[in-house]
């Protein structure tokens, strides 16, 4: 169980890093009025994949009996972030360019940050 907790805590940084990189790329793409091409869709897919791994590790911890104070708010926020990213990702191709992916990653990151804080863990 400690290995799962360590993995879940460590993957948090990959989620945040991939989200910030995707967010920066989408802001740059929108500002430069560039077409939504392969690097952008790959960044969104990587963010979604790392987030999915994090959710699976978190669910394994939850079902394994690890339930710190505030866990249900944490679970609700993290699942909301993952579902939100999946629902928006289904809308391909992105005819509006970077706007929708930018909003998706920004909302997901806010949900994730609030979810981390809900269990009194540091962001970094």
Helix-strand blueprint:
Layout: H1 2-31, H2 38-63, H3 71-89, H4 99-118
Helix pairs in contact: 1-2, 1-4, 2-3, 3-4
Describe the structure.
By secondary structure, the protein is mostly helical. It has one domain (2-118). It is 77% helix and 0% strand. The longest helix has 30 residues, at 2-31. The protein is elongated and about 45 Å long.
Question: What descriptors fit this protein?
Answer:
mainly alpha; 4 helices; 124 residues; 77% helix
- Summed up, the helix count is 4
Unreliable stretches (pLDDT < 50, length at least 5) are none
Radius of gyration (Å): 15 Å
**What's the mean pLDDT score?**
90
Q: What shape does the CA trace take?
A: elongated
Largest sheet: number of strands, sense, barrel closure: none
- Separation of the first and last Cα atoms: 22 Å
Helical percentage: over 70%
- The count of DSSP E runs of length 2 or more, i.e. the number of strands, is 0
Number of domains: 1
Oligomer: single chain
In terms of DSSP E residues, the strand content is: under 5%
**Helix/strand order, N-terminal first:** HHHH
User: What structural category arises from helix and sheet content?
Assistant: mainly alpha
């Amino acid at each position: 169980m400690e290995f799962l907790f360590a993995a879940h805590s460590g993957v948090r940084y990959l989620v945040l890093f991939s989200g910030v990189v995707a967010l920066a790329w989408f802001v740059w793409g929108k500002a430069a009025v560039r077409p939504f091409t392969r690097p952008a869709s790959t960044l969104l897919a990587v963010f979604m994949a790392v987030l999915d791994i994090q959710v699976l590790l978190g669910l394994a911890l939850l079902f394994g009996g690890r339930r710190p104070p505030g866990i249900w708010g944490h679970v609700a926020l993290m699942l909301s972030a993952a579902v939100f990213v999946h629902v928006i990702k289904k809308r391909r191709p992105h005819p509006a360019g970077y706007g929708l992916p930018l909003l998706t990653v920004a909302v997901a990151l806010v949900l994730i940050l609030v979810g981390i804080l809900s269990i009194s863990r540091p962001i970094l």
